[in-house]
Amino acid sequence: MKADMTLYPNLILDALRTVRYPGSGKNIVELQMVEDDMRIDGMRVTFSLIFDKPTDPFIKSVVKASEAAIRAYVSADVDIAGNIAVKTRHPAAQPGSVVQVLPGVKNIIGVSSGKGGVGKSTVAANLAVALARDGYSVGLLDADIFGPSIPKMFGVEGAQLYMRETDDGRNLLLPHERYGVKMLSIGFVVDAGSAVVWRGSMASNALRQLIEQADWGELDYFIIDMPPGTSDIHLTLVQTLGITGALVVTTPQQVALADARKGIAMFREPKINVPVLGIVDNMAYFTPERHPEEQYYIFGRDEDVDALAADYDVPVLARIPIVAAIGEHSDAGHPIALDDSITAQAFVHLAHETIDALDRRNRQLPPTVKVNVK
Quick one: pLDDT at residue 310? Predict the structure, then answer.
């Protein structure tokens, strides 16, 4: 027996009240996701569902659940398949546009690498500390979803996250602060001994929460420790934030340089369009701590990194030596940039060069290719 046609709108809304938006605990009617544009023509029903963003990962599943609920609650004869339109409250970010998600942040710097194991997180951590030591307000986001290491490097493993309620009723995560750096990491919310087995959409949503639902406040520099390689997470970060510029970390090895090329090319893709501020030559040479004047080029020579920089018309901002103390300080939760050693000065130098590169970028000046930086 078919339902009374005059009751269709109310019956359909009752059916949609059984469809919950994942993770919210509320149904799509309660969340005002059902547009007031319902049309009924015989057994054919059309209407629209409103999502916040066109990149919402649950669009397809919510639409399918809505179709199934209407058939089950109203009538199996309802013509609904393919008749639910999707609208979004916020349009997709255009390539190169700046999304004001963090209006209190002046500069957003992505620290990236073409491959893992080149010391990207060590560079990001020590760059943040060096900037903070110079008196700047600094934030650090550990966006390396599958290998978060910032909590270890700052000695805050196992730290609890807390939230505060704002005047407008929102609950915001409070970043941890140590050594003058505000930081958040996915490592704060997952078991340190467990593998993070997430699909790309889950990882992207987790990152958005750490960015958009956190009380970062006013910052001079917001450093992002990005995942190695090229992935959809990089696209998420670019679409969510207006990244001011990126640093590409590499070692002098040919295999690392080949991947660094891919990383630079990724940032120059039209849909990414993030300026590469410069290259960081990490593990550039080995220096015995008792003989700092000695340099041994274990992984390759300066010339190979210089050639990469020249090919892409970007500067080599710093060359970081291999010194056992860097790893020891990281393992102890005390970044070496906190010290006054010669090695620490390499990261201070990187901080100053990064500031200069940002200044040139903000003033739209051409890059100055620097080589043989010691």
Answer: 93
